[in-house]
Amino acid sequence: MIAQRACEAVARAGVDLDAILPRVFSRLLTVRLDGEATRRREDLAYWEGDASAQALIRELAGPQARLLVTAGRGETASTADVLQGRVVEVAHEALFNAWPALAQWIERRREALMLRPRLAQDAAGWAAAGRPDGLRPRPEVVLEQRKLLEGAELWGELVRDAPLIAHFMVRDDAAELLDLTQAARAADAAGFAAGVGHHFDCELQKVRKRRKTTKSGAASDR
Question: How many angstroms separate the Cα of 19 from the Cα of each of 9, 90, 129?
Fold first, then answer.
């Protein structure tokens, strides 16, 4: 019954499920360290400008499906959520297993989804300690974890929505740091991650300084 309602909602929305499913449900669930998927709330404003995602959410939350629930001012959401506008969440976590398309997506990305909360915790500890290089992952660990996140289509989301984690996992590469700095500035401007753009700027300056020192040393050796 749940799977049928979900499939009918997708048909009514008229969207490409393979493309839209990650854009919606990467924000509506996380995976605990024990591997269990659990729901989380998201502000509907997150999908502003994404008509396909909005269409799927609208149909999944509508009276024919009732697989997502929304809340607004004066409704059941907490005050903190309400202040950000309307919020949406999965009505029941049974959806994660009962809808084959969603269950398969979760399974394919389970390891990466499990990694995300651990990275968030590690990045927060690193930031609280003043962002020392000694608390960042080793380059080979960064490479392995980045490959996992990119393969699960989660790295782009972290760059856009969790710039602190992206900063924590950034490679020692000036071009990538420049891209992440611009993304973090956009997050600063939107009020999602105040101050992170400044830290990317500082990191970018450090990398450029190291590159300049390396080039100067190589020139003096000639």
Answer: 15, 19, 38
Buried b (16+ CB within 10 A) or exposed e, 152-181: bebbebbbebbbbbbbbbbeeebeebeebb
Structure letter (DSSP) for residue 26 = T
Q: Which two tokens stand for residue 206?
A: 């450090």
Q: How far apart are CA 172 and CA 149, in angstroms?
A: 18
Tell me the pLDDT tens digit for each residue of 78-111: 434 433 458 999 999 999 999 999 999 999 888 8
Beta strands per DSSP E along the chain:
29-31, 37-39, 42-43, 68-71, 87-90
Q: Measured between alpha carbons, how far is 56 from 28 in angstroms, rounded to an integer?
A: 13
Q: For residue 37, is it left (φ>0), alpha (ψ between -120 and 50) or beta?
A: beta
Amino acid at position 52, single letter: S
Residue 206 CA, chain-centre distance (Å), reads 26
Here the tokens at position 155 are 């790295």
Nearest alpha-carbon partner for 187 in 165, 212, 160: 160
Q: Which residues, 6+ apart, have CB-to-CB distance to 167 below 8 Å? A: 123, 131, 180, 184, 196, 199, 200, 203
Put simply, whether the predicted model's pTM sits higher than 0.70 gets the answer no
The single-letter DSSP state of residue 75 is S
Chain position carrying tokens 């997150």: 46
Q: What token pair was written down for 52?
A: 């396909």
